[in-house]
Specification:
By secondary structure, the protein is of the alpha+beta class. The chain contains 6 helices and 18 strands. The radius of gyration is 20 Å and the shape is globular.
């Protein structure tokens, strides 16, 4: 097991304890052919004003998800220390090498940052980044917001994610933050979600946190980026960092992954001719699409049906798919709204 008590090898070029607007780098030192003696820069923006909470806002955890980074940069452009009570630590491209490559995983080591926590001070570049966030940044924060999308591979119905923690008080704070973000759909993370994510790191640190899934497809949708920016402002108003309007008190639907077997996966290689989209309620046996065998035109196409009743939270954006690839992520309503 990695020793999380080890000091991070990464260093900041700015002092997060200093007031004002500061921009700089987290220095990710990783000697390779492209950069043998320097560092890979991870951009950091600190906006520190009067006394108040510290909030970490992350984008680019996966490098092909751009609505979040767009919203964070919009936020940085519009804020100054004189309107901030507390501190905002903005990291619009946490996995900067992956963002530069428009890649879900890091080109430095093929690591998936959101499957690497708690990380390792002596590990590869992705593990070192995770370790820095968990051991250096999270302990100084009162709340964390991590913005995602479906990336190039998939599209998510815009939703906010709240972890169902063992500590009921922390879970309630997560739900309050999710409500403040203002999207009508809340994905509750429970036993069927990965514990190597930023969300799980925040739970270990006892810090309130939400993530968001904001569309996808490999670009930045203007309407969804605007939703994300508005959600950030509403959360910062809720936390007392900004004098910002509260979210409208509309109904929020809570969903969760009841079983990974409820989702639809490709049974073979082929062209997925999709008939449904994210945001739809579906029934067991309903046609999800057809799998066409382009290289074998005499082979009958296969009708694909949903294995369970539920709600399509995300669908693949790919046409040609491989056996085992997720075609539709199917979730259900949280029982009793808990």
């Amino acid at each position: 097991m990695p020793d999380r008590s080890l000091q991070s090898r990464l260093r900041l070029t700015i002092d997060l304890d200093q007031p004002g607007l500061l921009t700089g780098d987290l220095m990710l030192r990783w000697s390779d052919n492209a950069n043998p003696l320097g560092y890979h820069p991870i951009p950091v923006i600190s906006i520190k004003g009067a006394a108040g909470p510290t909030v970490l806002v992350i984008g680019g955890t996966h490098g092909d998800e751009f609505e979040g980074p767009s919203a964070i940069m919009r936020l940085a452009r519009r804020l100054s220390p004189d309107v901030v009570s507390g501190q905002l630590i903005l990291m619009p491209a946490l996995n900067a090498p992956a963002v530069a490559a428009s890649s879900r995983v890091s080109p430095l080591d093929d690591g998936n940052l959101n499957r690497t926590f708690p990380g390792d001070a002596d590990g590869g570049p992705t593990a070192m980044l995770a370790h820095f966030v968990e051991t250096v940044l999270l302990p100084r924060c009162d709340a964390v917001i991590d913005l995602h999308s479906g990336g190039k591979a998939s599209f998510f119905q815009p939703c906010v994610l709240a972890t169902r923690t063992a500590d009921r008080g922390l879970y309630d704070r997560n739900l309050e933050l999710a409500r403040a973000f203002g999207l009508p759909l809340v994905w509750v993370l429970g036993a069927n979600n990965d514990n190597r994510s930023v969300n799980s790191a925040a739970e270990r640190a006892g810090v309130a946190m939400i993530a968001a899934e904001l569309g996808g497809g490999g670009g930045s949708d203007p309407d969804i980026a605007e939703q994300a920016e508005r959600g950030l402002l509403q959360c910062l108003g809720h936390l007392g960092v900004l004098d910002a309007p509260a979210a409208p008190h509309g109904e929020q639907r809570r969903i969760e992954i009841a079983s990974p077997l409820h989702s639809l996966y490709a049974p073979a290689d082929g062209l997925f001719d999709r008939l449904v989209r994210a945001g739809q309620d579906v029934e067991e046996g309903q046609t999800a699409g057809w799998l066409h065998h382009l290289s074998e035109p005499d082979r009958p196409s296969r009708r694909l049906t949903f294995p369970h009743n539920g709600f399509v939270l995300a669908h693949t954006c790919r046409g040609m798919v491989r056996r085992g690839e997720m075609l539709a992520l199917v979730v259900r309503d949280v029982a009793g709204g808990s």
